[in-house]
Design brief:
Chain lengths: 210, 210
Amino acid sequence: MSRKGILTIISGFSGVGKGTLVQGLMNQYDGYALSVSATTRNPRDGEVDGVNYFFRTREEFEAMIGNGELLEHAEYVNNYYGTPRAYVEGMLNDGKDVILEIEIQGARQIKEKMPEAVSIFIMPPDAQTLRKRLVGRGTETAEVIDKRLKRAVEESEGIEEYDYILVNDVLSESVEKLHNIIQSNHNDSDRNLEFINKIREDVKVFSEGE
Amino acid sequence: MSRKGILTIISGFSGVGKGTLVQGLMNQYDGYALSVSATTRNPRDGEVDGVNYFFRTREEFEAMIGNGELLEHAEYVNNYYGTPRAYVEGMLNDGKDVILEIEIQGARQIKEKMPEAVSIFIMPPDAQTLRKRLVGRGTETAEVIDKRLKRAVEESEGIEEYDYILVNDVLSESVEKLHNIIQSNHNDSDRNLEFINKIREDVKVFSEGE
């Protein structure tokens, strides 16, 4: 069976509980690792280079882009954020299933460079639930709510580009399903061509030897 | 989430334990149904029409072929065997995940007619284990063993055409993995386009209403 790790891209509506879900997966199961992003923003108190982020200067980051060292990158509020390919590939080669929480633009960039990555879009059980989460407890301004709902419309555009959707309803069940979806991909025949060929060759040798 | 059942094709080397695996799946989990084949062979003692097989005359069977009523069919030792489309589709529409144990020629015919079917090839942990199962306890003639090994070589030809491989080592673990592979496919975004579109429409309506 496939021993190389699988890169899993997690996207989903804001407020749908992606972070909690990924945290649950990491706590409950072995064999997973979180991707660590590179960024040009300044470290906040307590943030450690190589743990929370790889902190880089703008020049360093642009060199990484130029050298194709990033699986994806984007700029927000004058800072770069990106996913270092070497870090992810190192983890995958160690057999870790790497989890990467990211938005659709990044997901598209990664699928282009690593089509074997598995992508999962986290969904609310229904739109009403999502609305409640976005509208909150009525303490937000109309402007904030409006912005969130507009963002949700944008986020909903490319859902079918993802390999899977996962409804986040009961957390413990969702964590287990997320785990099962990722693990099932280890059984994908495309990920096991070496093993398949080995068995085929061995069977041929036996057959000729008898 | 997708409520329509999934048709799962199970193939694998003779002697690898496909039958036991499928039986374990049926015993341990709800929501599965076995496909029932049509055949022109005579019923054996205790076999019930519509349970073990749909027993048909040669004329009836050939009419089913002509009318496109079979997902696949083949002839062995002067008898036809085939998979009735209506029976399978009825089960799928009832939300049952239908299991069909079949050889590669049949698997190919089905994938052509129902590309959304999931196909799984059951593998031994290694070729040595397979060899032991095929060679048996030394009570078989060399001719029988030779025939089995040649068949195994043939069976090994098209493994990578299957969506998944599953190593049948520890039975209880294999049954659980089989279940997880099939269930993960319910999260396939292609199987949930209706749900995706519904959420997208609802979110749009909220956004415009605020």
